[in-house]
Amino acid sequence: MDSHTSTKTADETTSAGFDYVFPAIRGVQAGREFYVSMCPLRLIPRIFLFDDVELPAELRAQRVLNKGRLPALTRYLLDNPDDYVFSALTASVDGEMRFEGITDSGLGMRAGQIRIPMSARFLINDGQHRRAAIEQALRENPDLGHETIAVVFFHDAGLKRCQQMFADLNRHAVRPARSIGVLYDHRDDLANITRLLAMSSPVFRGHIEMESSNLSKRSRKLFTLSALHSGTRCLLQGLKVERDKAAALAQAYWEAVDAQIPDWALVRQRVLSAPDVRRDYIHSHGIALHALGRLGNSLLHESTSPSRWRARLKRLSAVDWSRNNPAWEGRAMSAGRVQKSQQHLALTVNYLRRHIGLELTPEEQELEDAYLRGDV
């Protein structure tokens, strides 16, 4: 017997003879009928199950629910009741589905309704995290229950078919590049600040790759939007400033950094090319922006006085950013290649902190000692 089918329970027996009725449009894929419908959110937790039984992976029809994802999804739904978007759920129905067409709909027999016995089981093939988030959100805001979500119904053809559906639905799913996620996110304040920097700051305007999170060797851009976003996030982390002031502070900081790295200005002036600068120097890679953001955060927590943190930053002018500088090996680089790991980032920050006269925290000093001993 398939793991997601079972003998009927007492509740299923008592529901015999009663049907769920959904408005639907009928379609055909791979010779199999399927139906697209709308379902009120309040019904989602009641009728749609996910295969969360403690079974080996080979006996389940989907991955284990990652509960760590639910708080963010739930908050998204609760915080944006007038502006959220959830894509359709896909479900297999372990039971009979009867389609009744509406002959005068103008769509022939494609539009109508489906009847599904209440004793049938609905198994989520795609969207179990959305389903769980909807359930949690309804506890805090029951009014969401009147809204609807699209559902695609397939006949349940057994465990093997359900597993294949899961594999096929996720086979070509590609997470969008972080840069384009920042570019298109108008809800997040930090994303808005980052776009503003990229499009209006004299340091970055015209030299930020807005869509891809990786630069080709021949790209004329200096940084990606995702790298600027990471650096600015680190810069502003924990600072209690309003959004407008945060944007102005970030621009002032990056302009102060720019004044200590002449090569950036030479690229803007077209004296140097961006590919050559990225090839020869560390300061034009994402790890540098990230490290400089952390460095700035320490300076701003130490003192909000622009004159004080600007004075500290002037010491950056003495940093040898060349890849030929052996100090970068094991920090920003490994075997001559720029790295992005948290350990490499932390060691790069250590190097810059010591260069401008900032003390290391105990944790940073412990990592630095391990690096100097050759243990990392």
From TrEMBL:
InterPro entries from the UniProt entry: DGQHR-contain_dom (IPR017601), DNA_S_mod_DndB (IPR017642)
Organism superkingdom: Bacteria
One Pfam family named in its UniProt record: DndB
Full protein name: DNA sulfur modification protein DndB
Gene: dndB
